[in-house]
């Protein structure tokens, strides 16, 4: 989703701004722009499309200046066009960039227009530029202007603003959208997340909600709402120089699929204590006291939660409620039956998930953030953090973060079950040792690329596809369908196999691709019968299964086999061919694999 960068006090800062924007590219965007300040003028370039277009424009007309702002925009209010792209400049005096949504923008705009302000775009963001302009025109300094603007706006936002007559001063603020300030040596930086700044400085200040700051080359003064100075600590973030590198693969997604053995192994290591047994961030006593868990997540992370529900309820006999984060707080949930809330998010920034976690925390639940990005907002706000160690995930379609989430959640389920006395230490250690074998099984499964390629090619002309799974493979079917639709734009739906006969079977017509997930588990026979029902009505059955279960569906049209695996690990291993199929189908279709249309990596609006 939108990305903000800013530099204060660096000669020829445009190139640095562009570099930082490239690091935020993975978030998804549809236009971009940079503004710099020289003497008493702003110089601005904006472009629709990829950063390459902005980069070409900057090569043709380089921008001078020691301070500046950059932005990648994912359209919310107003179409994708150059005039709606950020930065926005009011009356050649104030430049701003903004992420989020100013919910009362229409009212503010009408008031400002009444006072003679002329707007140039259809965006909600432009009101910020005019609000700051009105403040400065009335004689306020940066600190007062920041306090005043924050008191006027409602919604979610991260912004950065500059006045043309105040070189080397930037005003930044946030509410619910992330914003980090990087402190360098005689230069300061601003970014939507530390990733944008990691190549520039490791000293970062994270603003809290409704904070604002006046940033100069010497550092930042932070204020709470109302203008009271407040101390926000400088934290040292990890350097991550290699993250914009595809490592020889054609796409980040392809690279990230291949990184899954490491992602799983590192996550397992993070869930293993010094003495070699499973461990979680919750002390044994805390685990024992858990009597109900609510899982909060969106998209792929929600499907990880759904898989975990099967594991936790079966192993630990603890009730789990899986909630679509964007629905949770608005349906006024009854929270009393649960003692812990697990917020699952790769980015740690999904606003829906963050808000749901806050709601659960306010209702008295212990919050646990299962996040992949250290230092993200969910990581900072959760009572406890359970990290996945998948490394930076750049492809918009989540792959290695999902299998890492599943790994952490399975470890959590097993540790919980043992702490609750539902399984003994021997069974805990058995499952732990099974998980140790997973990286190598995933490694073998990665060898399926060539076998899956012709299958993917044949799917490129499909108008629709169904994914079926039963029991713990049902959420994997949902994940498979999501991967195919988001990457290749082919309509796809996931169903619980047993549910087909209650309606969806009417969709089946001759040749409809049905991707069927099957494991040698206790529901295998029933799942095979459900596939027989689909096959009898003309479906083309593409069976994705472990080797020993393949014979149960001898009528399958095509079979993709993974190594035999304990049923408890089947959802993790069977995810891999499903990812490969979606990746190769998109590749064969020629869609934008790493940045599919209309999507953003980090969804920071509700
Ligand atoms: O960063 P998060 O895990 O919170 O993101 C949640 C979803 O936006 C994300 O999983 C999305 O569904 C992906 N595009 C799926 O591939």
Average pLDDT taken over every residue? 94
**List of distinct ligands in this structure:** 5-amino-5-deoxy-1-O-phosphono-D-mannitol
- Bin the strand percentage: 15-25%
Sheet with most strands: strand arrangement:
3-2-4-1-10-9-11-14
Structural class, from secondary structure content?
Answer: alpha/beta
Number of helices: 19
Number of strands: 24
Q: Gyration radius, to the nearest Å?
A: 25 Å
Q: What is the rounded distance between the termini?
A: 12 Å
> Biggest sheet, in brief?
8 strands, antiparallel
What does this structure look like?
The protein has 606 residues and is of the alpha/beta class. 36% of the residues lie in helices and 23% in strands. It has 19 helices and 24 strands. A hairpin with a 3-residue loop joins β5 (88-90) and β6 (94-102). α7 runs antiparallel to α15 (438-445), α9 packs parallel to α13 (400-419) and α9 (299-316) runs antiparallel to α17. The chain is globular and about 80 Å long. The mean pLDDT is 94. The structure holds 5-amino-5-deoxy-1-O-phosphono-D-mannitol (M6R). 5-amino-5-deoxy-1-O-phosphono-D-mannitol binds next to α9 and α17.
